[in-house]
Amino acid sequence: MIGTKGLIVQDVKLPSTIVYGSDFAFDKEATGFLGGDITYQYRLEGNESWEDTKPVKPGKYQVRAVSKNAFGGNIYGKAVTFEIGRKDITFIINQDLIPYGDYENIEYKIYDGTPADKDYGSVGLVGSDSIENIDFIFDDTSKNTTYCHVDPDTIKILNSDNNDVSELYNVHVSDKEITFKT
Known about the structure:
Layout: E1 8-10, E2 17-19, E3 31-32, E4 39-44, E5 59-68, E6 74-76, E7 80-85, E8 87-93, E9 97-99, E10 108-111, E11 130-133, E12 136-138, E13 145-150, E14 156-158, E15 169-173, E16 176-181
Parallel strand pairs: 2-7, 8-15, 9-16
Antiparallel strand pairs: 1-3, 4-5, 5-6, 5-7, 8-10, 11-14, 12-13, 13-16
């Protein structure tokens, strides 16, 4: 019986895809025979080394349960593959009328597809992520009314450590017809 302590009898289960910034929860926790603490290790698919830190960046990963046998040695559960996907966000221009020549102070919303998000500013971003840079494109500034949208190539999103996390998002833009006031 001592040799079976810590054997993993139920492997971890989780959704096959998790979106960046969403709660990282297992559908089912791993369990060990005759008790024993279960911890988890993660690795980027294709890497040899395992880590104790949960991944947050998009990519394909594996997770495995780890337990200790009666002699203190590690027992490993089956590796389960999952993917962290990029978060979809859409930039929506929030103005119909802007002063002529004021091409940088345009109000916008960031929408991530959740109904509660439509009426709030940057709720679509994860945690303390924030917009560092954003530019706008106008179809024809010589006309009184033209279409405008965010230039997705200029968007820079930073996290609370001032690291560029723009690649963790799938950025979408929508055109908005605006009128210049003179």
